[in-house]
Records
---
Amino acid sequence: MLDHIIIGQYVPGHSKVHRLDPRAKLICLMLFMVFLFVSRHPLSIGVALLIAVLAFGLANVPLTFYLRGMRFIAIIIIFTFLLHLFMTKEGPVLFTTPIVTIYLGGVLEGVLVGVRLLLLVIMASLLTLTTTPVDLTDGMESLMLPLKKVGMPTHELAFMISIALRFIPTLLEEAMKIIKAQMARGANFTQGSIWKRVKAFVPVLVPLFVQSLNRAEDLAIAMESRGYEGGEGRTKFRILYWKRMDTIALVILTLYSMTAIFTRFLM
Amino acid sequence: MNKDIVRIHNLSFQYRPNEPYVLTDINLTIKEREWITIVGHNGSGKSSLAKFLNALFIPDEDGEVYIYGLNTKERQNQGKVRKLVAMVFQNPDNQLVAPTVEDDVAFGLENTGVPREEMIERVKESIKIMGLEGFEKQEPHRLSGGQKQRVAIAGVIAMKPKVVVLDEATSMLDPVGRKEVMEYIRRVHNDVNMTVIMITHDLNEALFSDRIIVMKEGKILKDAPPIEVLRDEELLKKSLLKPTFEFEVQSKLKEKGINLFEISPQITNQKELVDALCTWKQKM
Ligand SMILES: Nc1ncnc2c1ncn2[C@@H]1O[C@H](COP(=O)(O)OP(=O)(O)O)[C@@H](O)[C@H]1O
Ligand SMILES: [Mg+2]
């Protein structure tokens, strides 16, 4: 059970998408998200679809991984589709019932919003499915680097995230241990009212919290004794390589952005 | 004669004023390449003493700690001292910082600004010494306790310190993990030529050392070679330490009038014990 949470989203692999520089993936995703919401014209939606299909095909991650946890998203997509379907009153009337009237504009708008959301979710999942959390953190740190000039503690932020990621599995393991220990003492986490179940978790959270504080102190001493003094004067073991594939991906997304702008504002 | 790598002079210490002294009047010299074991029951001040060795703690007025002749009281020495004396701690989960084994081994090198090319070399070398090849990309939480401690030691020796201080580094491990880690510590001592200061309350782990330092209530009770300490029942009782199996057998036999010590003055492991018993039997 824990293993699922521990691995998180990442699906190991060596596909072209896996091997892209995390910076390239982050920038591409950002461009994709922004210009997806600019896209209205069938041409630019078509290009977006094409990019998604291409990325999906190249990534070679089994469909089931996308579907995991998709239920909630599906509800949102269907809900927004219906909302637009019923609320938009444009174009010719398709059919009328005593309760609602459906317009062609409503169908188009509903489909447009639905497709946008779907593409968005697919591309965002693709990022977390094909990039290790470590690479993601590295990518973010590197992209945030310009912000260091305006006083943003970029190293510290990235380091915090990376320590948090490192300790999530450890804390989960510990939580499981405490839960088992409390169960052995007769605690019941699965029966009773919601309030009762929530209350049953208090004796889990308190020791977990106390132990985390001890852990933090130990870790600080260990880091200090290994010469950690913040980001100043530090060299890096991990570096990111920008390859030709990354440039190509970026060019494709730039072309898409231009298509989106052109079809939206100039046509 | 080897150089003095650690010299502690009249060190006393209390965590807060008006609290009892945790260390009182410690004097200690450790030479290069020695293997020292510090034993003592819980709360005898071992960890506190260890923190003085790499300038995590600094003595107040009277006491002095010199590492390679550098006084830890002087601020400009403290960074150097941390590089000379490396520490490995008790809880394997609370000292690995990085997401993968190789990143963690590199952590100290990153902190001290070692150029990347050299870093890669040194990480590779340390991973090899600690027998962790093939685990480079592994995440810490997927390793056994013994492996985690080996990663911690690898991270420490990558910094090329002169002294490694291990503060109960084996006490949270199962017997297999202990044996495994001990084996690698011995390798660090013999092959990499490091001075080892090992803190433990398991006397079995003290057998390989050159000297055992017995602590009680912040004082050094005895500083002597293993055999001398292990044979001193009075001392072990006083300092609440559990004698090793072999010595317990010997002292029980002595109560019954069988003096194995006359047969073999050096019984430290089970084989030697069995040999001595056989010799005794033949003499009967
Ligand atoms: N951070 C601290 N603050 C106050 N007292 C402490 C602290 N750490 C340890 N002590 C006290 O110092 C004494 C020696 O502790 P320590 O050096 O950890 O012993 P050991 O490592 O031999 O078990 C103990 O009595 C302990 O309660
Ligand atoms: Mg201790």
---
Amino acid sequence: MMRMDSENDGLPQPRTLPSAPPPPLVAPVEPVPALSFRDVSHRYRSHPALDRLTVEILRGQTVALLGPNGAGKSTAIALVLGLISAQEGSVEVLGTDPREAVRQGRVGAMLQTGAGSGLPPNVRVATVLRLVQRLYPSPTPLDETVRSAGIGHLLDRQTDRLSGGQAQLVRFAVAIAGNPELLVLDEPTAAMDVAGQRAFWAMIRQFAQEGRTTVFATHHLREADEIADRVVVVNHGHVVADGPGSSIKAKIAGRRIRFSCSMPDAVLLDSLEGVTDVDLQGTHVWLNSLDSDATVRDLVRHAVQFEDLEVVGPDLQDAYVALTERRPSIERSSTS
Amino acid sequence: MSPLVAFGRFEVLRLVRSWRFIIITVGFPVVFYMLFLGDHTPSKAVAGTVPWRAYLMVSMCSFGALVAGLTSGGARLSAERASGWARQLRVTPIPTWSYVLTKVSASMLVILPVIILVEIVGATFGGVQLAARIWFELAAVLWVSSVPFAALGVLVGFTVNAETAFATVTGLMFVLGYFGGLFNPVSSMPSVLRSAATALPNYHHDQLGLSLIQGTALGLEHWAVLVAYTAAIALAVMMRHRKEELKGTA
Ligand SMILES: Nc1ncnc2c1ncn2[C@@H]1O[C@H](COP(=O)(O)OP(=O)(O)OP(=O)(O)O)[C@@H](O)[C@H]1O
Ligand SMILES: [Mg+2]
């Protein structure tokens, strides 16, 4: 728990957040964040989707929104893009109202489309790209967009004859065609094969090098960790963890060790090798560990009287739940 | 090229290039007209002071405008919503109103040739004889007053999903066509239906055309009803959009 708190100290002052990849070529000179959510709550009819979501993203960062199905990622993105208005709290994009930022052509987006292609039917890919380009005040040259997205071979195709992964690439080209400062991607690799995903993220890295801000939603911890400077974990519409991918991975990707113990000693358990987190509920103990073998050996060495010990794999769903359950401590740390 | 011009051009080209759509939209009223022409029943002669051949042609122009308006918006627009393209456009700099307006304008562009084609069929096979000025005025008046049909198509496209769009468009087409007196003169209808007809936009659209043929003034009440319908439909589109926005599905 202690460790978690210290990692979350960065939350209210995101400037201090470490960023793994080299700094962007164009340093974020303006102090205005690319994106800021302040206590944003949103509900669909009576169904809550966002619950006092607070997060600030600086320019030039590549940030992953990581969370399970229904966490509120797409809702947060819809707010960033002005597709819906915040019912409570405030959202600012590039220092202004989200709709204004979109209207000024400073935002590009790849939305989650479900079964749809996200493209107009019965038209050539090149025609769509040329249109999108003309809708923006200072677009990227077409050939550059085509090269960045790697879709040269798709230009003459009809949009309704693309595979799911190809349509996703074209939608990526649509998202970057307007030369946006902020790029928002909602599960951009959902229909891509592994090779496609790898190529796709290489493009995103390239894009981030140009000093732009990229925010993407994903369920895949590995994707988030590998690509993003910073991972914001969302569950039940709330930020449950925030930090560089490595720390998030430590928190949720390790093994879960669970057992019963008549008199668990939290301080001892927390000091065991590999343990990143301790949850106690009466006699039930859950440990998060980066190295379950070492932790179990240490348990034995310290003669901890455990029963029914089980080592569980990195079940993300469980991990999200675990993070959510620890929410109060995060809040305490971020308001202190 | 300004963004709005680019978008308009894109829409029109896309519309024109979909041959199947054009053939159905333009061909359907013409085929329908031909069928009516073949069916030479005397009841058709009861069309007041207008010769029934001219009466039929005006009705088919009006029907054609209705069909073209509904089909141009209708299924095409709901397919676009289903694919996610409509949503994608909302995250580009063009404002939503211009999207709606472009859709209505593109529909208007489809309506014009339909009206002209029905006139050509009327002049050739339909045995309709009119002064050159009347032919021109008829096309112009019927076209301009077709705005509510173009708007109605867009409303349908905004409201129904892709699966039910076709059925909705077909249903509206025949219900409005029949009760608006496009297939049978309103004067030959029972009085209940007659008052129902006067509440429908295409009845008034039809009446504008008939006034031109009769050489009487274009009744202000007809324009008023059509303008009121356009305003109501525009309001409905706005409300629909607002509702989807709240639901998060726009
Ligand atoms: N249009 C809607 N109407 C009603 N409820 C909605 C709507 N959209 C989302 N929700 C609900 O709001 C919550 C958050 O949904 P959201 O789409 O933001 O999640 P997500 O994190 O993007 O999930 P996924 O990973 O499945 O895309 C979910 O519980 C969902 O059921
Ligand atoms: Mg989503």
